[in-house]
Design brief:
CATH architecture of one domain in chain A: Up-down Bundle
Order of helices and strands of chain A: HHHHHHH
Membrane topology (chain B): Multi-pass membrane protein
Structural class of chain A: mainly alpha
CATH class of chain B: Mainly Alpha
Organism (chain B): Pseudochryseolinea flava
Helix content of chain B: over 70%
CATH class of one domain in chain A: Mainly Alpha
Order of helices and strands of chain B: HHH
Subunit structure (chain B): NDH-1 is composed of 14 different subunits. Subunits NuoA, H, J, K, L, M, N constitute the membrane sector of the complex.
CATH topology of chain B: Helix Hairpins
Oligomer: heterodimer
Number of helices of chain A: 7
Shape of chain B: elongated
Number of domains of chain B: 1
Distance between the termini of chain B: 51 Å
Structural class of chain B: mainly alpha
Enzyme class (chain B): translocase
Pfam families (chain B): Oxidored_q2 (PF00420)
Chain lengths: 175, 102
């Protein structure tokens, strides 16, 4: 159990590092899928099989496919990879990485500094999740429906191909 | 042993969140920034799952379902915005969208 968790978490961290350092978007997305799959294994080990299935279906399935379709619509050429290589310089990486890793070290220090109480392991199955979702959290489900509705309307409104018109007073200043 | 696993899962969530944070800070491509936000949301969900497994309660998984819904809505609206920016500015550079000089 524990060795499965450790292997899956190492794969997740390595795949995420590979995903955020690629120049090519499609390669980054493939590494991202590996990261999501290994995090699904982590969920399974933690006793959440329902959420592990949801992670694979929604994250590795729907969201990544959505991003791939947008990349296909953008029709990026070879020079975009070169552009990405120019943008991704070493001196840009250094500062944010050091500051963020200091924050991470602080977090891990806090996590390690307190003693933990051992609990008996038990899986929380889909039935209890569903009972909780449609019992005490029913207002959250309704608000999620509202959020998805506004997401659909917003994506349709923003993604529509309009004729390119700037503001009428700014019409002469367009480049 | 289960509590130790929950602690390790919280550490993994922290590491993944920091990787996403680094990526959103160092990247200039808007699609990479959106992917980084997805990584960070996923790490937050992992923290919720670890906490739910620590107490053996389904509440963490319920919160993950809500985070999943939010991530799906966010990525659809974000990708529509990226399409609009690419059609207006013909580039994916996030620094190019500074017409308002904010």
């Amino acid at each position: 159990m524990n060795i499965t968790f450790i292997i899956a978490s190492f794969v997740a961290v390595l795949a995420t590092i590979m995903a955020i350092t690629r120049y090519n978007l499609i390669h980054a997305l493939l590494y991202l899928v590996i990261s999501f799959l290994s995090i699904a294994i982590v969920f399974f080990v933690l006793g959440a099989p329902f959420v592990a299935a949801l992670e694979i279906i929604v994250y590795a399935g729907a969201i990544v496919v959505l991003i791939i379709f947008v990349i296909m619509m953008l029709n990026l050429k070879e020079e975009s990879v070169e552009q990405e290589r120019i943008w991704f310089s070493r001196k840009v990486i250094l500062g944010p990485s050091i500051l963020s890793i200091v924050l991470l070290g602080e977090l891990i220090y806090i996590l390690l500094s307190h003693e933990t109480t051992a609990l008996t392991t038990q899986a929380v199955d889909a039935k209890s999740v569903g009972l909780s979702l449609y019992g005490p959290y029913i207002i959250g489900v309704e608000l999620s429906g509202l959020l998805l509705m506004s997401g659909v309307v917003g994506a349709y409104h923003l993604g529509r191909q309009k004729k390119k018109v700037q503001h009428r007073f700014l019409e002469n200043q367009t480049t | 042993m289960n509590a130790a696993i929950a602690d390790q899962a919280l550490m993994l969530a922290g590491i993944l969140f920091v990787l996403g944070l680094i990526s959103v800070l160092i990247r200039r491509n808007i699609i990479f920034m959106l992917i980084s936000v997805e990584i960070m949301l996923n790490a937050a969900g992992l923290a919720f799952i670890a906490a739910g497994a620590r107490w053996g309660q389904p509440d963490g998984q319920v919160m993950f379902v809500f985070i999943l819904t939010m991530a799906a809505a966010e990525v659809s609206v974000g990708l529509a915005l990226i399409l609009q920016i690419y059609h207006q500015l013909k580039t994916l550079d996030s620094d190019a969208a500074d017409k308002m000089h904010g």
